[in-house]
Amino acid sequence: MKLPIRALVIVFLCLLAAPPRAHAHVGSKDVFEQVTAGPYKLFVTIRMPTVIPGVATVEVRSSGTPISSIHITPLPLTGEASRHPPAADLMIATTADPAFFTGSIWLMATGSWQVRFDVTGAAGTQTVAVPVPAVAISTLTMQRGLGITLAALGLFLVLSMAGIVAASVREARLEPGAVASPSRKRRAIFATAGSLAFMAIVLWGGAKWWNVEAASYSLDVYHPLTVEPLLSGNQLDLNVLAYKPDSERRARSNNDFLPDHGHLMHLYAIREPEMDAAFHLHPVLAGPGDFRISLPAMPPGQYALYGDVVHANGFPETLVAKITIPDNMPGGPLGEEDASAHPQPLSQGQLGGSYKLPDGYVMVWDRPSSITANTAYAFRFHLLNADGQPAPDMQPYLGMAGHAAFVKTDGTVFAHTHPEGSAAMASLMLANGSDSSTSDNMDMNKMDMPMHNEPISNTVEFPYGFPSSGRYRIFVQMKHGSTVETGVFDATVL
Amino acid sequence: MAIYACGVLAAIICGYLIVATTFGHSSRLKATSVNVLGFRAPLGAFIAAWGGIATLTSAPFDNWWHAAYGLDVKIVSPPHTLLILGLRAVGVGILFLILAAMNRAATADSPSSKLSFKTLQLLFLYIGGLIVAGQMFFLMEYTWDVKLHSASAYIALGIALPLVFAMLSQASRHRWAATTTATIYMVFAIAEILILPLFPAQPKLGPVFYPVTHLVPAKFPILIFVPAIALDLLWQHTRAWKPWKVALASGFLFIAVLTVVEWPFATFLLSKASENRFFGTIYFDYNSRPNGIDRMRLFWEPDHGLDLFAGLLRAAIYSSIGTWIGLSFGRWMRSVQR
């Protein structure tokens, strides 16, 4: 009797012990995007599942021309399946707020996906798509209550099966009404013991099988491509290693990157642990998988590196590494499109809502009175000149009104976002019909900078939602004249 | 949901039978019952009720499994195995309910009991056919037409089928039990191929690699009725043999006939000649990639020479062991009275 119970308990304890892991996109799985479909304006939040296949929930807040219905369809970003959409699902408008729609979609395979929105309203039907990277980022542990319930049911199944075996040996073959002989009763006891031993072996085999399945699943849990940083003098080489699993479909190349805002990699270097020095740099490809840059002068210490890249199929990755900058490293000048900031250390308290920049300009954040985790916000920032007036000579920075990085102070979250949202620009373009895998870089840059000819506002909004509570530091870049400014702000998320 | 409804139905009906027998006053019911953990009912009711509870237990387990590891595209996973074990127990439980009545009728001499024996035997074979179809569904991943030139398909069939055939043949006392139950499976599977494509449908989930406009049937059934005929003939002529000899001969015969029939038939299924509405090789599910082995109609990792021979030998040995278990269990089932 003891053995099967123990086997059962071991099976369920195995579940409780498996630790969760979260890695993808550096801790920020959800996608926040402001998109326009003709005259319709949508603030899209896609809450990604932690397992694949899994369900993503989609929320849309509409502004602009009123909308009567939205259909959503998940489909891969590239390849054969991107040409055959499955049946679309209708989003439901909430009764309290007819401009707020919710829906859900199944993401059935790992890879680079898009959610297509068919928006119908006063101005007819328009289509827009938001790219989403679908990856498994954790395995779930079993809740104690469910574990106990299942263990109890399992125990009952084992005991009652032993009872059935005993009854079949003892009585099943008797003429109706006859009574079992002592020898039959004895045989029934042996049969019970035998059946319990047999079920113990079956359960033990089942537990082993379970472990194998769980281990094979955990191999599918997403990890960014490995980066090996090599610093000699001030030349930094980031060697990106390709990911070659057994299944070719899950493989990721280190040599298929698309330019995003004209650069193959956007590299943030943030000094640890005080986050008192931050750099936004753009290494260039020196060879397959080898990103190289001559570093500017940087205060010595350990830096966390976050390198954003986009694969040819639109799959974005944030590659992570650490480097140590030695004392008196010879530093070159900052590149024309690079940026840096030297805010006060974290330990000296929270930064306020306005940040004084080195040239006397000021960046101001319309900080919400309280910020809660997993809520979608459009965070708004303004650039003012030394007199407190809107900065007059605004320029696009890397084709955009601004760039922002939201970084948790413990290093578990990093999200590089744009005024459109948290999806990479190159993926967004793939999703909306420009096949950048075949276009050359010139084209990319042109399409990459849609606002080039329009006057740039001194106000920029970033749609984003913090994935968890805790302390975050936000780095915001805007450009005026030929100066790239980096404002730094702190947020405590509840 | 319909699958779990089967579990609920079995649990409720057999639960009622158990309660009625245990606490009721019918001495006729009590006389044909057994005692499990203090309750009384026919053995079949307990087995079916057990299956119902196992089926229902698998529901939250499977739900958690999907939440933890994603919706499985695989049929064979631990919670699904529990589910199938439960469903099979419901089937076997019903089989036992019929069987006990059948066995009692077989030993009686009145003409009315002869008639009821015949009816019960047909019912028994029908349920047996459903069990065979269930086994084949569980093996679908291993017996896809493009995998029929690999030993693994024959090993899977060798493990799963002769056991069931031998059990059904012994327990039902029918000369053509294996043939009848195999034919029931074939008829169901072919009917599916003819009927399902008549209903329009479109994929609800991506990625869609093959646009689908109607319901898609499973692949053409494995021609298991041919080895089933061979087994029935063998068993009709070897009643005097020792069980282990029968089992050994059955295992090798089953795999030999199956291979001789199915191997060239698989070649036919992958040829242009089978591309019609009857053989159904024109149908692909939405997940079939254009460069996938199924769409290209190529065999998946075919075995040759020694590998193939060793694989088929293994399959024959498993078949023999399965037949021996099936024969022994079937013989025991024949004496079940309650």
Walk me through this protein's architecture.
The complex is a heterodimer of chains A (494) and B (338). Helix content of chain A is 20%, strand content 36%. Chain A is an alpha+beta fold. In chain A, helix 1 runs antiparallel to helix 2 and helix 1 (2-17) runs parallel beside helix 3. Chain A is elongated and about 105 Å long. Chain B is an all-alpha fold and 338 residues long. Chain B has a two-stranded antiparallel sheet with strand order 1-2. Chain B has ten helices and two strands. Classes of the chains: A alpha+beta (494), B mainly alpha (338). Chains A and B meet through strand 4, helix 2 and helix 3 of A and strand 1, helix 3 and helix 4 of B.
What is the average of the pLDDT values of chain A?
Answer: 86
Number of strands of chain B: 2
- Rounded to the nearest angstrom, the radius of gyration of chain A is 29 Å
Portion in strands of chain B: under 5%
Q: Which sheet architecture does the biggest sheet of chain A show? A: 5 strands, antiparallel
Quick summary:
The complex is a heterodimer of chains A (494) and B (338). By secondary structure, chain A is of the alpha+beta class.
Topology of helices and strands:
The complex is a heterodimer of chains A (494) and B (338).
Chain A: H1 2-17, E1 31-37, E2 40-47, E3 54-64, E4 67-76, E5 89-90, E6 92-93, E7 100-107, E8 111-121, E9 124-134, H2 144-170, H3 182-220, E10 227-232, E11 235-240, E12 266-271, E13 278-281, E14 284-287, E15 290-294, E16 301-310, E17 316-325, E18 339-341, E19 354-356, E20 362-365, E21 377-384, E22 394-395, E23 403-408, E24 414-417, H4 425-431, H5 441-448, E25 459-464, E26 470-480, E27 483-493
Antiparallel strand pairs in A: 1-2, 2-3, 3-7, 4-5, 4-8, 6-7, 8-9, 10-11, 11-15, 12-13, 12-16, 13-18, 14-15, 16-17, 19-20, 20-21, 21-25, 22-26, 23-24, 23-26, 26-27
Helix pairs in contact in A: 1-2, 1-3, 2-3
Chain B: H1 2-23, H2 27-31, E1 34-36, E2 39-41, H3 43-69, H4 78-107, H5 111-138, H6 151-172, H7 177-195, H8 225-237, H9 243-269, H10 305-334
Helix pairs in contact in B: 1-3, 3-4, 4-5, 5-6, 5-7, 6-10, 7-8, 8-9, 9-10
